[in-house]
């Protein structure tokens, strides 16, 4: 019963992942952005100092914490971003941009990286030093803990890494890693002061080096922060920033319409459509935020035959899926992760529905009258709808799909090893991180069971290639292979939708969820 | 009076057993659910090694009976245990959520009793006439409306269209008394259904009582109409209403999830919803104990009131 009353988006937001996130999107705002990056595109105001902005997010109730390394929900990530910095963060194309790290430099073999920190201070005035960075990373990597970013930091040999000075660090890696800056930008890899992790330290008076300093926090309700005037990237325009928690989308919208908050995260496409033209609130669409896919397990029947996989690629009518399952709030996919991101192979032809060819392929593979179970769940917006639409599309190619709805709370663990076909989605992360987490033989969340030694070798080759153009070529080879016979049927990329009050300016419009400019409030002001 | 005392003792004992049964059932059901707190926490990043590490950090790798025994032992010392998800004491979750819920429940009941009884008596007095028909049909319509729909409707009209009231209590936290206007809509929604059921019950009870032989007898003695209605007929109609009221209070206290979610009120319903989603068994158990005890006590109270008001009807233990 409650599933009907609480549909849709999901207190446990899908945070992309251990790896990374990108910015890469363009979005319109109510006040008329024309593809420029921020919502003040028309220049109708210059940044104004002062004021308190209240931002409503879906949260995690009483178990929320300000420990940035425990960040798991969008609300956690947004709070952590206000208070802390990472060494790097993702730009609009999901390439790593320097933040606390002023610059980085690799040795010839790409397995030693020298990082120089910029001059930055924590909120109590202490400088951010190499020791703080090493402390933070060692805390995240602690095998006794289960911090989300631990897997991302895995390439670093922390025992061998050392400080070379107050602001210099030499990271020793276990293997060549050309995209090492992505590791520095990993989700949850925040820099905290040395010793900050001592018992209860984050809940009482947390200290970071981010744009806002701590004022008060009540788990599941509200967190208040104040401008940090000495922030290295320039003091925020806002005087105060408050995060409030409202798990229901309708509550967030109502609070925004009623003037109780100025920023509402995660809105439904229908809400966005209803308000986009009315002008009462601004609607921001962060494009390419969420990959939407069906995931075929390539190690078992019927998908161990690549002709069957290709037939499924051809069964999908992507426009219909985007219109039906995402209410039109998205763009079609081409069976490749990371549309618009760095290294994305955009030269490949757009896949279109071709039922005749699909039927022929299935016949060749001896899989006529195929029956498949498609696992879905209400765990993410649009999954159930997408499953229903795809079932009808498959019927036209003679494939019988039975949709099976599973538990919301254990869905991601359930589909990892079970079944053969399931609904899937992912937040933004660099293409390299998507591959390393999901498509290598030893990947921890390899839901398509894509295990090919030669593919692993290509990935290693990319990571050992110094020259960027050559590296891009290797990435393209990997993607061509996935496009031809991979297990991810990536049919679309959903917009991430935000609502803002009319007087909120400076909200980035090209920032897929999880990137630097997403939920970034130090560049926002109240007109 | 010893009969009454043994009745109370029996009911309390039964209540304690019921509470234990509820807790065991909750534990068994949460165990039977697919996935555990570690799986729920891992979310879309179900790296098996990470799940195992979380499980170990939460001590979920220990057998279920050991965890249950530990928890029950703590309970005997008044310790509700600690949350799996945050490591904070469960007692704190309960006390944090109790305030807003209690406030909503108190306000609702304070309005519910006069309105519900008033409407019921009014309708009974005018049985079959326009006022009765009006009250009966309006209460039926409102009763048939799901709270969620009514809540959305009220927000749209009263808060967003007319701007008379704040649409949610977002950001006010537990300081709801400091923002009384934010309480109006949730209390209206909470009132809507109980007022209808209560007034209809009172109306029916009154009509029955007014038609009863003892009222007819009182009339023959020339007792005034008002006195008959309030001293003779109403108490008879009160017994079922009191029991209905107890169930309503129970429902209000045990967290009215829809209203809390819609208006962002951080009460027990919200705590429960989050705890279930996170498979935070100790919190769910703590709430189950609390709800169990509340239900038992309130129903006992209602039965005693009913016993007192209408001894002739006989109260089943």
From TrEMBL, chain A:
PROSITE patterns: PROKAR_LIPOPROTEIN, TAT. Residues 97-425 form the Solute-binding protein family domain. SUPFAM superfamilies: Periplasmic binding protein-like II (SSF53850). It holds the Pfam family SBP_bac_5. Coiled coil: none annotated. Residues 37-47 have a biased composition (Basic and acidic residues). InterPro entries: Peptide/Ni-bd, SBP_5, SBP_5_dom, TAT_signal. Residues 32-51 are annotated as: Disordered. PANTHER family: MONOACYL PHOSPHATIDYLINOSITOL TETRAMANNOSIDE-BINDING PROTEIN LPQW-RELATED (PTHR30290:SF65), PERIPLASMIC BINDING COMPONENT OF ABC TRANSPORTER (PTHR30290). This is Peptide/nickel transport system substrate-binding protein. It comes from Streptomyces rishiriensis.
From TrEMBL, chain B:
It is found in: Cell membrane. InterPro entries: BPD_transp_1_N, MetI-like, MetI-like_sf. It comes from the Bacteria. Keywords: Cell membrane, Membrane, Transmembrane, Transmembrane helix, Transport. Residues 98-306 form the ABC transmembrane type-1 domain. Its main location: membrane. It is a multi-pass membrane protein. Gene3D superfamilies: MetI-like. The chain crosses the membrane at residues 102-122, 134-164, 176-196, 251-277, 283-302. Belongs to the binding-protein-dependent transport system permease family. This is Peptide/nickel transport system permease protein. It comes from Streptomyces rishiriensis. The lineage of its organism: Bacteria, Bacillati, Actinomycetota, Actinomycetes, Kitasatosporales.
